[in-house]
Every structure is written in structure tokens, then in C-alpha cells.
Amino acid sequence: MPVGPWWIGLDVGERETRLCAQGMRKEDCIEKVVPSTGRAIAAAVEGLLLGSLREVVLESGSPPALVRQLRQIGLPLTVLDAGKASKFLAIRQNKTDVNDARGLAEIARTGQSRVLAVHIKSPEIQLLRSSLVLRDQMIKQKGALSSALRSLLRVHGSSLTRLPSPTRVKTEVSLELARLRSELEIDLAEQVSPILQLYETFAGVLHAEDKRIARLAAANPVTSRLMQVPGVGSVTSLSFYTAIEDPWRFERAGDVGAYLGLTPRVKQSGGTALRLRITKAGNKLTRGHLVMAANVILCHAASHCALADWGRSLAKRVGHSKAKVAVARKLAVLLLILWRSGDDFQPYPWPSRR
């Protein structure tokens, strides 16, 4: 076996992982198929460690538990953004597991992994993040059930345009079903009952999850301080906290806006430069939470702070939609600064400029 350095690409599958190790020379290439476990992958690359193993790369879709196992073993592991890495891998005509592993190894060997690397969350942060993702899925399911229930009633002559609160929904829907039976001689009880039961279940679980998230946010010293900002509640603060995890991994506080996809894309050619819509890079869920918080800041009369004043002034010039995104971007920067400094939120940090 030639002496290194070596760069390894791992195309991780559910059961098997394609491994490709590349050296400095084109002919220095070793390929293997191993089980998708940390122990099996470590055993496969053990011989290469003597040959100066430089880096092992895999895509961000890989199981976080596997990533943590490989790091605990001591491998020089880098996780690449799957969306960005896929553009590099698409250079090859045929997309196969073998070609993907080769492409990942080439990314590492050419030094591009630093540009494509992503941050891997700790188990504690991942657990909190999973709660927010689960809550988001439940909201979507609850909304789908609500739409299905309203559509079923409306198509048969119901005047119920929106569902009442979960505590009153069963009573209101039962009254509407009784009215349809008496006036139109239509009995929808058999169809509506299972949908209504599922809707109530989702609403109850979601309510309990919201209370649990509120307790978690209040107990955390970072998120409780972030909630001092108007419009930032328990969900937004926890979402930002789990998306960032380490506030010091940004060289400048302003970089967090680009990290969350809240900065405009730029298309420049010659003497022409266009500022387009925001990039929407980074985490979609956290970006949505920040935009909703920004909307509260702009619309809620009780939001009195320098950020709200600036946003409302901007909205008069460019419109509410663009101002909302701009406020979300500034809000992300403000939250990161508060996190780093450990200071309490000051609505008007410069009183003379109020």
C-alpha cells in the first residue's frame, strides 16, 4: 500500500457504505463496501491511518449517531452540505454510490471540504431540535385535518367557514351536523367523526407540547434572555438557540443573517449588479420562526423598541413584506449579540437617538 496522505469519501447508505480512499497520485485509489456502522468503517480505514490519513468526508444526510461515533473513534471527519456537494457530484454523468464516494474523496483531496462543511449538533441540542421539528409536523397535520373537515362540511351545504377553538370544536361541529340532518336531510356523522377525533387528538398533543417547550425555554438562561425581545417567544428562542448552538462560530455577528438565508442574492455581470430575493439558505424552520417574530414586531402595537421603529419606517418605503424580512435579518443579529454578550435586552440602547 502506498504511503499517504489519504483522503476518504463515504457514501453512507441505510445498510452499506461505499468507501473510496484517494492518495496524491491518480492510481492511488482504494474502494471498499462496508456495513454502515462506526466500528466497521473504522476497521476499514485502520490500515490507512499508518499512511497519514488527512480527512474523511461524508454528506449531511448521514445519521448523526454515525457521525458522533466516527468522531469519538478519532477520525478526522468533515460533514458536507448535501445540497452543495450534490452539484459537485453531478459533474459525473452516472450517479452511482461508487461515483458519489469517489466524488466526495475528490472534494476532500482538492481542499473544497472547508467551503462545504456544516456544523453537527450535539445530542442535547439535537433532542431539543427534534421537539421543534415534531411540533412543526403536528401543526401541518392539524391544518390538513382542519381543511379536510371544513371542505367536507362546506361541500354539503355547511356555513361553517372556520373551525372554532379546540375546546369548542366538537360542540360546534355537532350542532352543524344536526342542522344539516334536519334542514337538508344529510347525515355526515360517520364521515366527520374520525376526522374530528384525529383533529382533537392533534390539538391536545400540540397544546401539551407547546407548554413543554415553554418550560424548556424559560429554564434555559440563554433562551429566557432572548425572550426579552418583543415578538420572540419560547418557540422562536429555542429554534434560534438550536440552529446556532455555538454563537462564537461566526466571525462577525452580521454573518448569522446569511447563514439563515435572510440576505439577498446578488447577480453581477460587468457593470450591472442586481439584488434578488433572499437566498433561503440554512435552516428553513428557524428562518420561518424569525420571519413570524418580525411580523409580530411590526404589527403589534405594544412592540416599542429601536428595531420596531426602524422596521415600521422601512415598511412605509418598501412595503410590509420586504420590511418583514429585513427585520428578521436584524433580529437574528440582535439575538446573536445578546447571546454573546450575556446582557439583558435594551429596547433603546442609545437613548439620544430615540
Q: How would you explain this protein's 3D organization?
A:
Helix content is about 55%, strand content about 15%. Strand 2 (about 15-20) and strand 3 (about 30-35) form a beta hairpin. The model has no long low-confidence stretch (mean pLDDT about 90). It has helices spanning about 40-50, 65-75, 80-90, 95-110, 115, 125-155, 170-185, 190-220, 220-225, 235-245, 255-260, 285-300, 305-320, 320-340; strands spanning about 5-10, 15-20, 30-35, 55-60, 75-80, 265-270, 270-280. It is built from 14 helices and 7 strands. The strands form 2 sheets. Strands 3-2-1-4-5 form a 5-stranded mixed sheet. A two-stranded antiparallel sheet has the order 6-7. It is globular, with a radius of gyration of 26 Å. It folds into 3 domains: about 5-115, ATPase, nucleotide binding domain (Nucleotidyltransferase, domain 5); about 125-220; about 225-354, no CATH class. The protein is of the alpha/beta class and about 350 residues long.
